[in-house]
Specification:
Blueprint (H helix, E strand, L loop, with lengths): L1 E4 L2 E8 L3 E4 L2 E4 L2 E5 L22 E5 L17 H14 L5 E6 L1 H12 L4 E7 L7 H12 L2 H11 L6 H15 L5 H10 L4 H8 L21 E6 L7 H10 L4 E5 L6 H4 L1 H14 L2
Parallel strand pairs: 5-6, 5-7, 7-8, 8-9, 9-10
Antiparallel strand pairs: 1-2, 2-6, 3-4
């Protein structure tokens, strides 16, 4: 499904019922918007890991502008601010009440910025393997030098240099980095996911290449303004959004709940999927 809004076309998909029969009444479930990472990928990477959440809430997946099945348009608008505005415009387009906002990696950055700009639009905030400022990039460089193979260090240098400028190079990057993204890395499953997914180099390079907007990104001064129930999930072995960045978010958001998954890297959804779903579903049910 597609929504035409803000000068572009946003692709979205819906999983699960919003209204369910409960004896003699129809019970309304919460609606969660799931925000994918990257930039430069699409929502397909969140499936099927998050599908079990549809048993307790309705899920809305969408692709950021310039990515996945969404419209390409003016590449100068491939920014975090525009992603925030697109997300809010889609929420309004769908007529949704305050949502459960679930952001993974870069999607968590969009989720935090959206929560600060539109606090009345969310009921719960779930931040998965993310960071509140661009300092995570220098830390990731250090970790790759410590843990990475020569080839992993080389493709990361290409990332920071803005040289992942073709789909083929971007797919090669993810294939090489797979064992760092997930401790449970399965080459066959990873290759299938790469084939399923859509990859857009330009949004990634606008974020992480020289002069990219991620380097000046910093939400820390305002995180204390977030006053909805917030769950923060981190992977102990995460190389790109190391767990100290989730701990930092936790110290800034009053009353937030932090859970570190000891057997996970950046892809908790691959390393500990059942525990991740249980944590999110339990958190939303508890705070309704």
């Amino acid at each position: 499904m597609r929504a035409t809004l803000r000068g572009t076309e946003i692709y979205f998909d819906i999983d699960g019922m919003g209204l369910v029969p409960d004896n003699d009444v129809m019970r309304e479930r919460p609606v969660a918007m799931l925000i994918h990472g990257g930039p430069g990928s699409d929502h397909s990477g969140l499936k099927p890991a998050f599908t079990p959440l549809a048993a307790s809430m309705q899920l809305v997946y969408f692709d950021h502008r310039g990515q996945g099945r969404s419209g390409r348009g003016d590449s100068s608008t491939y920014t975090l601010d525009e992603n925030v505005e697109d997300m809010e415009a889609l929420r309004r387009h769908l007529g949704l009440d305050p949502i459960v906002s679930v952001g993974t990696s870069y999607g968590g950055m969009v989720a935090m910025a959206h929560a600060l700009r539109y606090p009345e639009s969310i009921s719960h905030l779930v931040l998965i393997v993310t960071a509140a400022h661009g300092g995570f990039i220098d830390r990731a460089r250090q970790i790759v030098r410590q843990r990475g193979t020569a080839e992993q260090q080389r493709v990361c240098d290409m990332l920071w240099a803005g040289e992942l400028d073709t789909v083929e190079r971007l797919k090669h990057y993810y294939a090489v980095m797979g064992p760092l993204y997930a401790r449970s890395y399965d080459p066959k499953a990873a290759a299938a996911a790469l084939r399923r997914g859509s990859h857009a180099p330009e949004p990634l390079n606008r974020a992480f290449g020289p002069g990219g907007f991620m380097y000046g990104y910093d939400l820390r001064p305002r995180l204390g303004e977030i006053n909805v129930p917030t769950l923060i999930l981190a992977g102990r072995h995460d190389w790109i959004c190391a767990p100290e960045f989730s701990e930092e978010i936790h110290t800034h958001i009053p009353g937030s709940d932090l859970r570190i998954f000891e057997n996970s890297s950046h892809s908790i959804r691959s390393d500990e999927p059942e525990a991740m779903i249980e944590a999110i579903a339990g958190f939303v049910a508890r705070d309704r």
